[in-house]
Design brief:
The protein has 2 domains: about 120 residues, Rossmann fold, CATH 3.40.50; about 160 residues, Dihydrodipicolinate Reductase, domain 2 (2-Layer Sandwich). It is an alpha/beta fold. Helices cover about 35% and strands about 30% of the residues. The radius of gyration is 20 Å and the shape is globular. The structure holds nicotinamide-adenine-dinucleotide (NAD). The site of nicotinamide-adenine-dinucleotide has 24 residues, from α1. One of its GO terms (molecular function) is nucleotide binding. This is Gfo/Idh/MocA-like oxidoreductase N-terminal domain-containing protein.
Protein backbone atom coordinates (compact mmCIF):
# COMPACT_ATOMS: atom_id res chain seq x y z
CA UNK A 1 0.00 0.00 0.00
CA UNK A 2 1.52 3.34 -1.02
CA UNK A 3 1.73 6.00 1.68
CA UNK A 4 0.30 9.51 1.44
CA UNK A 5 3.17 11.99 1.17
CA UNK A 6 2.55 14.82 3.63
CA UNK A 7 4.61 18.00 4.12
CA UNK A 8 4.27 20.07 7.29
CA UNK A 9 4.50 23.84 7.64
CA UNK A 10 4.59 25.07 11.23
CA UNK A 11 6.33 23.66 14.30
CA UNK A 12 4.17 25.46 16.84
CA UNK A 13 1.84 24.51 19.66
CA UNK A 14 -1.02 22.80 17.85
CA UNK A 15 1.36 21.03 15.49
CA UNK A 16 3.33 19.53 18.38
CA UNK A 17 0.45 18.87 20.73
CA UNK A 18 -2.22 17.32 18.55
CA UNK A 19 -1.58 17.05 14.79
CA UNK A 20 1.89 15.57 14.41
CA UNK A 21 1.30 13.07 17.27
CA UNK A 22 -1.73 11.88 15.28
CA UNK A 23 0.07 11.72 11.92
CA UNK A 24 3.03 9.71 13.22
CA UNK A 25 0.63 7.03 14.43
CA UNK A 26 -0.76 6.47 10.94
CA UNK A 27 1.01 3.67 9.07
CA UNK A 28 -0.19 5.04 5.72
CA UNK A 29 1.40 8.51 6.03
CA UNK A 30 4.94 9.48 5.06
CA UNK A 31 6.07 12.83 6.48
CA UNK A 32 8.36 14.09 3.71
CA UNK A 33 9.43 17.39 5.26
CA UNK A 34 8.92 19.97 7.98
CA UNK A 35 9.25 23.75 7.66
CA UNK A 36 9.35 26.56 10.22
CA UNK A 37 10.99 29.96 10.10
CA UNK A 38 12.28 29.57 13.68
CA UNK A 39 15.29 27.22 13.65
CA UNK A 40 15.00 26.06 17.28
CA UNK A 41 11.36 25.08 16.89
CA UNK A 42 12.13 23.38 13.59
CA UNK A 43 14.93 21.31 15.11
CA UNK A 44 13.04 20.35 18.27
CA UNK A 45 9.93 19.30 16.36
CA UNK A 46 11.89 17.36 13.73
CA UNK A 47 13.72 15.53 16.48
CA UNK A 48 10.55 14.75 18.43
CA UNK A 49 8.76 13.26 15.41
CA UNK A 50 11.86 11.87 13.66
CA UNK A 51 11.43 14.00 10.55
CA UNK A 52 14.56 13.87 8.37
CA UNK A 53 14.18 16.80 5.98
CA UNK A 54 13.78 20.27 7.46
CA UNK A 55 13.40 23.65 5.77
CA UNK A 56 13.00 27.31 6.68
CA UNK A 57 11.48 28.11 3.27
CA UNK A 58 8.20 26.33 2.54
CA UNK A 59 8.36 26.87 -1.23
CA UNK A 60 11.76 25.13 -1.30
CA UNK A 61 10.31 22.28 0.77
CA UNK A 62 7.41 21.79 -1.64
CA UNK A 63 9.77 21.78 -4.65
CA UNK A 64 12.18 19.30 -3.07
CA UNK A 65 9.79 16.89 -1.36
CA UNK A 66 6.92 16.59 -3.86
CA UNK A 67 4.09 16.08 -1.31
CA UNK A 68 0.44 15.22 -2.06
CA UNK A 69 -0.90 17.06 0.97
CA UNK A 70 0.31 19.91 3.16
CA UNK A 71 -0.49 20.87 6.75
CA UNK A 72 -0.28 24.64 7.25
CA UNK A 73 -0.50 25.24 11.00
CA UNK A 74 -0.17 28.85 12.03
CA UNK A 75 -2.29 31.76 13.24
CA UNK A 76 -4.93 33.04 10.81
CA UNK A 77 -3.22 36.29 9.85
CA UNK A 78 -0.14 34.38 8.62
CA UNK A 79 -2.07 31.76 6.69
CA UNK A 80 -3.55 33.13 3.47
CA UNK A 81 -0.52 33.50 1.16
CA UNK A 82 0.75 30.03 2.03
CA UNK A 83 -2.64 28.39 1.47
CA UNK A 84 -3.07 30.12 -1.89
CA UNK A 85 0.44 29.06 -2.95
CA UNK A 86 -0.20 25.42 -2.02
CA UNK A 87 -3.59 25.39 -3.77
CA UNK A 88 -1.94 26.86 -6.87
CA UNK A 89 0.45 23.89 -6.73
CA UNK A 90 -2.69 21.67 -6.72
CA UNK A 91 -1.87 20.29 -3.28
CA UNK A 92 -4.42 19.08 -0.74
CA UNK A 93 -4.42 21.36 2.30
CA UNK A 94 -5.20 20.99 6.01
CA UNK A 95 -5.37 24.13 8.19
CA UNK A 96 -6.39 24.91 11.75
CA UNK A 97 -9.39 27.05 12.55
CA UNK A 98 -10.16 29.84 11.85
CA UNK A 99 -9.88 29.50 8.07
CA UNK A 100 -8.49 33.01 7.56
CA UNK A 101 -9.24 36.30 9.22
CA UNK A 102 -12.52 36.92 7.42
CA UNK A 103 -15.10 35.29 5.16
CA UNK A 104 -13.60 36.84 2.02
CA UNK A 105 -10.29 35.04 2.60
CA UNK A 106 -12.05 31.72 3.26
CA UNK A 107 -14.18 32.20 0.14
CA UNK A 108 -11.15 32.90 -2.07
CA UNK A 109 -9.40 29.83 -0.68
CA UNK A 110 -12.52 27.73 -1.27
CA UNK A 111 -12.96 28.95 -4.86
CA UNK A 112 -9.35 28.21 -5.75
CA UNK A 113 -9.53 24.78 -4.11
CA UNK A 114 -12.62 23.95 -6.14
CA UNK A 115 -11.05 25.23 -9.36
CA UNK A 116 -7.88 23.17 -8.81
CA UNK A 117 -9.74 20.13 -7.44
CA UNK A 118 -7.85 20.25 -4.16
CA UNK A 119 -9.16 18.48 -1.09
CA UNK A 120 -9.19 20.79 1.92
CA UNK A 121 -9.92 20.62 5.61
CA UNK A 122 -10.35 23.12 8.43
CA UNK A 123 -9.59 21.77 11.89
CA UNK A 124 -12.99 21.92 13.51
CA UNK A 125 -12.10 18.95 15.70
CA UNK A 126 -15.22 19.27 17.81
CA UNK A 127 -17.16 17.64 14.97
CA UNK A 128 -14.94 14.59 15.47
CA UNK A 129 -14.93 14.20 19.25
CA UNK A 130 -15.98 10.57 19.81
CA UNK A 131 -18.53 11.50 22.52
CA UNK A 132 -20.20 14.19 20.39
CA UNK A 133 -20.32 11.99 17.31
CA UNK A 134 -21.99 9.14 19.23
CA UNK A 135 -24.52 11.45 20.92
CA UNK A 136 -25.42 13.21 17.66
CA UNK A 137 -26.10 9.89 15.96
CA UNK A 138 -28.53 8.91 18.72
CA UNK A 139 -30.39 12.23 18.67
CA UNK A 140 -30.53 12.35 14.85
CA UNK A 141 -32.25 8.96 14.83
CA UNK A 142 -35.15 10.59 16.72
CA UNK A 143 -35.02 14.02 15.04
CA UNK A 144 -33.34 17.13 16.49
CA UNK A 145 -35.63 19.81 17.92
CA UNK A 146 -33.26 22.06 19.90
CA UNK A 147 -29.51 22.33 20.41
CA UNK A 148 -27.09 24.47 22.36
CA UNK A 149 -23.39 25.19 21.90
CA UNK A 150 -21.93 26.55 25.14
CA UNK A 151 -18.34 27.81 25.15
CA UNK A 152 -17.02 29.99 27.96
CA UNK A 153 -13.60 31.04 29.22
CA UNK A 154 -12.01 33.19 31.88
CA UNK A 155 -9.86 35.40 29.63
CA UNK A 156 -8.31 38.81 30.04
CA UNK A 157 -5.49 38.55 27.53
CA UNK A 158 -6.47 41.46 25.29
CA UNK A 159 -7.52 41.32 21.64
CA UNK A 160 -6.57 38.08 19.86
CA UNK A 161 -3.19 38.23 18.11
CA UNK A 162 -2.94 41.94 18.98
CA UNK A 163 -6.26 42.56 17.26
CA UNK A 164 -5.59 40.66 14.00
CA UNK A 165 -8.79 38.74 14.63
CA UNK A 166 -11.68 38.64 17.11
CA UNK A 167 -12.77 36.09 19.70
CA UNK A 168 -15.87 34.90 17.86
CA UNK A 169 -14.09 34.35 14.52
CA UNK A 170 -10.94 32.88 16.01
CA UNK A 171 -12.04 30.81 18.96
CA UNK A 172 -15.76 30.80 19.81
CA UNK A 173 -16.10 29.73 16.16
CA UNK A 174 -15.84 26.18 17.54
CA UNK A 175 -19.30 26.63 19.07
CA UNK A 176 -20.66 28.35 15.94
CA UNK A 177 -19.41 25.48 13.79
CA UNK A 178 -20.83 22.88 16.19
CA UNK A 179 -24.23 24.61 15.95
CA UNK A 180 -24.16 24.22 12.15
CA UNK A 181 -23.00 20.63 12.53
CA UNK A 182 -25.90 19.84 14.86
CA UNK A 183 -28.59 21.90 13.13
CA UNK A 184 -27.77 21.96 9.41
CA UNK A 185 -28.52 24.80 7.00
CA UNK A 186 -29.22 28.15 8.66
CA UNK A 187 -32.46 30.03 8.02
CA UNK A 188 -32.64 32.92 10.52
CA UNK A 189 -30.40 34.44 13.18
CA UNK A 190 -30.98 36.85 16.07
CA UNK A 191 -28.16 37.79 18.40
CA UNK A 192 -26.82 39.91 21.23
CA UNK A 193 -23.07 40.63 21.08
CA UNK A 194 -21.35 42.77 23.68
CA UNK A 195 -18.03 43.96 25.08
CA UNK A 196 -18.08 43.78 28.87
CA UNK A 197 -15.21 45.69 30.51
CA UNK A 198 -13.10 45.47 27.32
CA UNK A 199 -12.52 47.27 24.01
CA UNK A 200 -13.35 44.07 22.10
CA UNK A 201 -16.45 41.84 21.98
CA UNK A 202 -16.36 39.09 24.57
CA UNK A 203 -20.00 38.04 25.10
CA UNK A 204 -21.95 36.34 22.34
CA UNK A 205 -25.57 35.16 22.45
CA UNK A 206 -27.44 33.93 19.39
CA UNK A 207 -30.58 32.05 18.48
CA UNK A 208 -30.38 30.29 15.13
CA UNK A 209 -33.36 28.79 13.29
CA UNK A 210 -32.39 26.01 10.91
CA UNK A 211 -34.05 25.01 7.64
CA UNK A 212 -35.08 21.75 9.35
CA UNK A 213 -37.17 23.73 11.86
CA UNK A 214 -34.80 22.95 14.72
CA UNK A 215 -33.51 25.87 16.78
CA UNK A 216 -29.97 26.35 18.10
CA UNK A 217 -28.62 28.56 20.88
CA UNK A 218 -25.11 29.94 21.11
CA UNK A 219 -23.92 30.89 24.59
CA UNK A 220 -20.32 32.07 24.47
CA UNK A 221 -18.46 34.48 26.67
CA UNK A 222 -14.90 34.99 27.79
CA UNK A 223 -15.51 36.47 31.25
CA UNK A 224 -16.75 33.58 33.40
CA UNK A 225 -15.27 31.27 36.03
CA UNK A 226 -13.35 28.80 33.84
CA UNK A 227 -13.11 27.24 30.38
CA UNK A 228 -16.04 24.95 29.63
CA UNK A 229 -17.19 23.63 26.26
CA UNK A 230 -20.41 21.67 26.05
CA UNK A 231 -23.21 20.93 23.64
CA UNK A 232 -26.80 19.86 24.16
CA UNK A 233 -29.05 18.14 21.65
CA UNK A 234 -32.73 17.58 22.35
CA UNK A 235 -35.04 15.49 20.18
CA UNK A 236 -38.23 13.50 20.43
CA UNK A 237 -37.86 11.44 23.62
CA UNK A 238 -34.13 12.11 23.92
CA UNK A 239 -31.78 14.66 25.50
CA UNK A 240 -27.99 14.56 25.17
CA UNK A 241 -25.70 16.66 27.38
CA UNK A 242 -22.12 16.42 26.13
CA UNK A 243 -18.88 17.80 27.52
CA UNK A 244 -16.72 16.32 24.75
CA UNK A 245 -13.54 16.26 26.79
CA UNK A 246 -15.22 14.94 29.96
CA UNK A 247 -18.44 12.91 29.67
CA UNK A 248 -21.88 12.68 28.09
CA UNK A 249 -25.26 11.92 29.64
CA UNK A 250 -28.14 10.79 27.47
CA UNK A 251 -31.68 10.64 28.84
CA UNK A 252 -34.36 8.71 26.98
CA UNK A 253 -38.11 8.22 27.18
CA UNK A 254 -38.73 9.80 30.58
CA UNK A 255 -36.40 7.41 32.42
CA UNK A 256 -34.85 8.97 35.52
CA UNK A 257 -31.40 7.44 34.99
CA UNK A 258 -29.30 8.73 32.13
CA UNK A 259 -26.72 6.77 30.19
CA UNK A 260 -23.31 8.14 31.19
CA UNK A 261 -20.24 7.72 28.95
CA UNK A 262 -16.79 8.97 29.86
CA UNK A 263 -14.75 10.70 27.16
CA UNK A 264 -11.79 8.39 27.68
CA UNK A 265 -14.00 5.33 27.18
CA UNK A 266 -15.53 6.69 23.97
CA UNK A 267 -12.06 7.59 22.65
CA UNK A 268 -10.48 4.37 24.00
CA UNK A 269 -7.68 6.61 25.26
CA UNK A 270 -6.94 9.13 27.99
CA UNK A 271 -4.91 11.29 25.56
CA UNK A 272 -6.52 14.69 25.02
CA UNK A 273 -5.78 14.72 21.27
CA UNK A 274 -7.85 11.56 20.92
CA UNK A 275 -10.64 12.56 23.33
CA UNK A 276 -11.01 16.01 21.75
CA UNK A 277 -11.31 14.72 18.18
CA UNK A 278 -7.94 15.75 16.70
CA UNK A 279 -6.86 12.18 16.01
CA UNK A 280 -10.15 11.41 14.25
CA UNK A 281 -10.11 14.62 12.19
CA UNK A 282 -6.59 13.87 10.96
CA UNK A 283 -7.64 10.32 10.13
CA UNK A 284 -10.61 11.74 8.19
CA UNK A 285 -8.33 14.05 6.16
CA UNK A 286 -5.91 11.27 5.24
CA UNK A 287 -8.77 8.88 4.37
CA UNK A 288 -10.34 11.54 2.14
CA UNK A 289 -7.01 12.10 0.35
CA UNK A 290 -6.72 8.35 -0.20
CA UNK A 291 -10.26 8.11 -1.55
CA UNK A 292 -10.12 11.46 -3.41
CA UNK A 293 -13.21 12.52 -1.49
CA UNK A 294 -13.93 15.99 -0.07
CA UNK A 295 -13.75 16.30 3.75
CA UNK A 296 -16.75 17.34 5.86
CA UNK A 297 -15.00 20.55 6.97
CA UNK A 298 -13.66 21.53 3.54
CA UNK A 299 -13.10 25.21 2.76
CA UNK A 300 -16.49 25.63 1.04
CA UNK A 301 -18.18 24.27 4.14
CA UNK A 302 -16.00 26.50 6.35
CA UNK A 303 -17.29 29.51 4.38
CA UNK A 304 -20.74 28.70 5.79
CA UNK A 305 -19.41 28.74 9.35
CA UNK A 306 -17.67 32.07 8.71
CA UNK A 307 -20.92 33.41 7.22
CA UNK A 308 -22.78 32.37 10.36
CA UNK A 309 -20.19 34.27 12.42
CA UNK A 310 -20.90 37.33 10.23
CA UNK A 311 -24.65 36.90 10.64
CA UNK A 312 -24.29 36.71 14.43
CA UNK A 313 -22.51 40.09 14.34
CA UNK A 314 -25.09 41.62 11.99
CA UNK A 315 -28.30 40.28 13.56
CA UNK A 316 -28.30 42.18 16.84
CA UNK A 317 -31.65 42.28 18.60
N1 LIG B 1 -8.51 23.62 17.20
C1 LIG B 1 -8.23 24.12 18.37
O1 LIG B 1 -8.83 23.78 19.39
C2 LIG B 1 -7.14 25.14 18.47
C3 LIG B 1 -6.56 25.44 19.72
C4 LIG B 1 -5.54 26.40 19.76
C5 LIG B 1 -5.14 27.03 18.59
N2 LIG B 1 -5.74 26.72 17.40
C6 LIG B 1 -5.37 27.39 16.16
O2 LIG B 1 -4.20 26.81 15.63
C7 LIG B 1 -3.52 27.75 14.82
C8 LIG B 1 -2.05 27.66 15.14
O3 LIG B 1 -1.87 28.03 16.47
P1 LIG B 1 -0.53 27.63 17.26
O4 LIG B 1 -0.75 28.10 18.65
O5 LIG B 1 -0.18 26.21 17.02
O6 LIG B 1 0.51 28.58 16.53
P2 LIG B 1 2.03 28.81 16.90
O7 LIG B 1 2.27 30.27 16.84
O8 LIG B 1 2.42 28.06 18.13
O9 LIG B 1 2.79 28.10 15.69
C9 LIG B 1 2.84 28.62 14.41
C10 LIG B 1 4.20 28.29 13.82
O10 LIG B 1 4.20 28.65 12.45
C11 LIG B 1 5.46 29.19 12.14
N3 LIG B 1 5.35 30.00 10.93
C12 LIG B 1 4.69 31.18 10.78
N4 LIG B 1 4.80 31.61 9.52
C13 LIG B 1 5.55 30.70 8.86
C14 LIG B 1 6.02 30.57 7.53
N5 LIG B 1 5.75 31.50 6.60
N6 LIG B 1 6.75 29.50 7.19
C15 LIG B 1 7.04 28.56 8.11
N7 LIG B 1 6.63 28.61 9.39
C16 LIG B 1 5.91 29.67 9.76
C17 LIG B 1 5.85 29.98 13.39
O11 LIG B 1 7.25 30.21 13.45
C18 LIG B 1 5.35 29.06 14.49
O12 LIG B 1 6.35 28.14 14.94
C19 LIG B 1 -4.17 29.10 15.12
O13 LIG B 1 -4.97 29.49 14.04
C20 LIG B 1 -5.05 28.87 16.32
O14 LIG B 1 -6.23 29.61 16.30
C21 LIG B 1 -6.71 25.79 17.34
Amino acid sequence: MSKIRVALIGAGGMANRVHYPSLVEFGDVEIVGLCDVIEEKLKATAQKFKIEKTFTNYKKMLEETNPQAVYILMPPHHLFDLVIHCLNQKLHVFIEKPPGINTEQTMQMALLAEKNKCLTMTGFQRRFSPLSVAAKKKVDERGLVQCTAFFVKNYSGGPYYAGATDILTCDAIHAVDNLRWMGGEVKKVVSDVRAIDTTYNNVFNAMVKFESGAVGFLVANWIVGKRIFSIEMHGKGISAFVEPEVKSIIYKDNKEEGEVTLAKDAAESAELYKIAGFFAENRHFIDCVKENKQTITNFSDAVKTMELVDRIYHSQM
